Each structure stands twice: as structure tokens, then as C-alpha cells.
Amino acid sequence: MNLTRPAGAVLLALALASVPVTAARATTAADEVNYVALGDSYASGTGAGNYSDALCTRSRNAYPALWAAANDPASFSFVACGGAKIPDVLDDQVSALDEDTTLVSLSIGGNDSGFASTMLSCQYSTLSACERALATAGEYVVNELPGELDGLYATVRAEAPDADVVVIGYPHLYKEGGLCLGGLSSAKRTAVNKGSDLLNETIAERAAAAGFAFADGRPAFAGHEICTGDAWISSSNVHPTAEGHASAYLPAFTAAVAGS
């Protein structure tokens, strides 16, 4: 009886059998998603209800939580917090990142540029006061925000060197033109949206310089701004509603993730 051939065949079969197992393990490791959501109230879900953390207005209806629920990542750290500015992200949020992080979302810059005070001026003061507040915010956006974003983005990359990072922009808040009962005048609405354009352009430019993807909130919310018949932004708190997160931010983020 010739034992050499069967023994060789057995060894070959065992060797071949081990290949798919090894490949499968490598594929699983490569496809594992560890997601960290950073940012301010537009990321945490202020105004979207169903809060898991009332202090940070962190909502189960916010796009990071919705994306995680739909995609079942290996890990999900939701640390975005309402009211956050760039220093808050650096001090309190980036510690959630590590070398195993594979996906990061980030919305920041609005509060740093004085979003709350500017909106108060535009809602309750004259057109000239609104324009002055927007001009002051614009000076910060042009002269100071780029450097602050660069520093933050560099830290995010250092803490999560292998992650895909998606920076989420802000929507136009108001429909322009026509009447808006109980809302801002047409001139104020146009001025506020121009301020949003400047902020988004700056954020998109610095995100690109860092090698990060940018998901633009303006086309995502188009036709659903305040003063439209089907608004996805609340006129009372000027933040996306649960519908805004599900129907605008979530698709925009999902598309950016797929393209990154």
C-alpha cells in the first residue's frame, strides 16, 4: 500500500482548509466598525426629543444614534453634547477616540462663532442689529475659526489615525423670500442663511485640508427649512427635529460614510 500520496493529500487538504478561516478572520477584523460621534447640539440631537442624556440633550433620534441602530457597529460612543465648542470637544470628547476607532462624525463651529447670541439678535432685535451680530460672527469665522478647526482636526487624526472622519455641516435655517408668519422678516432670513453659507464654506475647506469628508447639511434640508410647509427645523429652538435627523442628516451622513 502506498501511504505517501494519501498522507500528502491529507496535509494539502488541511492546508487549504485553513485558508478560508484565516481570510474570514482578517475580513471580519477589517470590516469591524468602531464609531465615535463628536460635536455640538446639531450632533447630539437637541430638539429631537427622546433623550438618553438630558444634560447634553443627547437624543436617540439624532443621526449618530440612528446610524448606529441601523448598522450595528462593533462599538458606538456617542459623546456629542449640546452647547459644545471646540475647546469642549478637545477637553471632554476626543478622549473617546483611540487607535481602534474606524469612524468619526463631527459637527462643530456654530457655538464658537456665537450662534446663540446671533440668533437672539436676529429674532428679537432690528435688522441692523441682526446684521451687526452676523458681521461680528463672520469676522470670527474668517479670521479665527480656520486655525481652531485645524488644531481640532489634527488632534482627531492623531487620536484616531486610521478612522474615516465625516464632518457634518449646518443647514440653512430659513426659507428665503415670501412671508413667514410669526418668523423673521425676509431680509433677516436671507442674512442668516448667508452667515450659514460662510460658516459651512469655512468648515468644508478645513475638513478637506485635513483629508476629512464633508457632509453638507444645506441640500439635505432644502425645502424643509423654517417657514416651509413641512419644516424639519424647529422654529422655537432653531434645531433639527427628529424628522430632520432621520430624513436629512442621516441620509447625508450615510452617503458620506459610503463615499469615504
TrEMBL record:
GO MF terms held by the record: hydrolase activity
Keywords assigned by UniProt, alphabetized: Hydrolase, Signal
UniProt keyword annotation of Hydrolase present: yes
Enzyme Commission number(s): 3.1.-.-
SGNH hydrolase-type esterase domain: residues covered: 37-246
Group of enzyme by EC: hydrolase
InterPro entries: SEST-like, SGNH_hydro, SGNH_hydro_sf
Signal peptide region: 1-23
Protein name: SGNH/GDSL hydrolase family protein
Organism (species): Streptomyces argenteolus
